[in-house]
Amino acid sequence: MNIYGCYALFIKELRRFYSVILQTVGAPVVTALLYMAVFGQVLKGQTIEGVPGTAFLVPGLMMMSVIQNSFANTSSSFTQSKVMGNLVFMLMTPLSPFEIYLAYTGAALVRGCLVAVVLFVVTHVFVSVPIMHPGLILVMLILSGGTLAVMGLIAGILADKFDHLAAFQNFFIMPMSFLSGVFYSIHSLPPFWQQASYFNPFFYMIDGFRRGFFGVGDASAIDAIAVAAGFFTLVSAIAIWMLARGFRIRS
């Protein structure tokens, strides 16, 4: 394995988002705080699954930020390289498809986790959120952030311009993340929509992550980990296959 080459690409991706950290980390935190301010007033004084409404929002907003930023990091970077024509320089390096996959996914995961940590620290000033199962939080954070990072890589491979990415994010990532229980418990939904939520993998990511904080959730911890791990494995296999075949890259 070309460890040094993989590490160099990883560092390059870290520096890319760090150079505009106010946009890549600061802006998502501010956006999440605005959601917190609006929905926190609506849920003030209410309890959801025995958890104060305002505190209930925090893990959901953290995971939603991880989902959106992990996806954005890989998809925007890969598409930018294609549009600017410098992707060919990476393809000329002695990096295997797995090493490219590992570097892009790792950097996106760092960005997603950084946003989540900053958001947790900032919101802790306003509302106290317990941490009951730190191991579960870490597992769900890595699996969820990694999954969306790989999905962003797939989107970057498929996209020929930034409009394609916008369509993917607006019609797929955004609806699935908003309809996954960020602001509510699925037990408050009508029976049909409750059952439909169980087919949304993002629901398990957010619910398992929230269970790590409060010890309660709409699905079991085993189901959340199993679905997140299975989805991560599936998208990873697709991404590595695409990179190995040079799908929409080498033409």
Describe how the helices and strands are arranged.
Blueprint (H helix, E strand, L loop, with lengths): L2 H16 L2 H23 L3 E2 L2 E2 H32 L2 H5 L5 H27 L10 H25 L3 H17 L12 H7 L3 H14 L6 H25 L6
Antiparallel strand pairs: 1-2
Which descriptors would you attach to this protein?
two-stranded antiparallel sheet, 76% helix, globular
What value does the average pLDDT take? 92
**Quantity of strands, as a count:** 2
Low-confidence stretches: none
Quaternary state reads single chain
How much beta, percentage-wise? under 5%
Sheet with the most strands: spatial strand order: 1-2
The level of helicity is over 70%
Gyration radius (Cα, Å) is: 18 Å
Q: By helix and strand content, what is the structural category?
A: mainly alpha
Please report the distance between the alpha carbons of the first and last residues: 26 Å
Largest sheet: 2 strands, antiparallel
Count of helix runs: 10
| General shape | globular
